[in-house]
Amino acid sequence: MHVRTGDEVVVLSGKDKGKKGKVLSVNPEKRMVIVEGVSMATKHKKPRRMGETGGIIKQETPIYASKVMNVCGKCGAPSRVGRKVLEDGTHVRYCKKCGETF
């Protein structure tokens, strides 16, 4: 997948189009990601123990990874991600606009 946990991304389509956020988790089998502050849903939580509070909470829901694009740290623009192997054999991801590695 082109995104990993901790990446800064921007949403390309849907009700949250244009929002930026940090990737909290990635599910490669379902090709879905959870982005901080994006695709919020309300959840009714019931108290389970004595002293625990219940109520209505807001929680992020997964969105398809194809709807997000990485934001480059150097140029600050959303860009496609390329992959290359360096001379020492390590695999790196890089910005296709400015060439900076992620």
UniProtKB/TrEMBL annotation:
Keywords: Ribonucleoprotein, Ribosomal protein, RNA-binding, rRNA-binding. The keyword Ribonucleoprotein applies. Pfam families: KOW, ribosomal_L24. GO terms for cellular component: ribonucleoprotein complex; ribosome. InterPro entries: KOW, Rib_uL2_dom2, Ribosomal_uL24, Ribosomal_uL24_C, Ribosomal_uL24_CS, Ribosomal_uL24_KOW, Translation_prot_SH3-like_sf. CDD domains: KOW_RPL26. GO terms for molecular function: rRNA binding; structural constituent of ribosome. GO terms for biological process: translation. It comes from the Bacteria. Residues 2-29 form the KOW domain. Belongs to the universal ribosomal protein uL24 family. One of two assembly initiator proteins, it binds directly to the 5'-end of the 23S rRNA, where it nucleates assembly of the 50S subunit. One of the proteins that surrounds the polypeptide exit tunnel on the outside of the subunit. Part of the 50S ribosomal subunit. This is Large ribosomal subunit protein uL24.
